[in-house]
Design brief:
Blueprint (H helix, E strand, L loop, with lengths): L1 E7 L4 H14 L2 E7 L8 H7 L8 E4 L2 H10 L4 E4 L6 E2 L8 E7 L7 H4 L4 E4 L11 H14 L1
Parallel strand pairs: 1-2, 1-6, 2-3, 4-6, 4-7, 5-7
Length: about 150
């Protein structure tokens, strides 16, 4: 399994650091694409939660998410967006390809419509409580561990 993670305008450096740490823990993550306002790895707040995981996983900053998507599409890797939309599928019922890119969006706004139109599939984590969604870092952990479990 080869996983690429696209962080689309994640505003919290702490969330980004947590995603790095979960990505290292789950294994199989080849690269993390830091897009738009997502902080780069030199941010001390990021390192506070990453605890060195930025040294384990290659990353690169892109001005826009679409630049990262273009690069991933050139590699022929399917792109799945983690977003609660009408046509999104429960992440537990999806058969994942051996190579995949996962887009995680802004904590409040999610992923924009322009991006949603060009991805291969949309997936979501079902909620059993009253809240609509998980924190983005928690969501990434749940999905990464599920995908690598198979």
């Amino acid at each position: 399994m080869e996983i690429h993670i696209v962080l689309d305008n994640i505003r919290s450096a702490f969330n980004v650091g947590s995603i790095f740490r979960s990505a290292d823990g789950a294994g199989s993550v080849k690269k993390i694409y830091l897009c738009g306002i997502t902080t780069d790895i030199d941010n001390p707040k990021l390192e506070k939660t990453a605890l060195g995981a930025t040294e384990m996983i290659p990353s690169e900053h892109y001005d826009t998410t679409h630049e990262a998507i273009e690069e991933i599409k050139e590699l022929g890797i399917p792109i799945y967006c983690v977003e609660l939309t009408e046509d999104a599928e429960n992440f537990q019922s999806v058969k994942y390809p051996s190579k995949i890119a996962l887009i995680f969006g802004h904590e409040k706004r999610g992923v924009d419509d322009k991006t949603l139109k060009i991805v291969d599939k949309k997936i979501y984590v079902p909620m059993r409580g009253l809240k609509e969604s998980l924190n983005v870092a928690n969501c990434a952990s749940v999905i990464l561990y599920e995908i690598t479990r198979e």
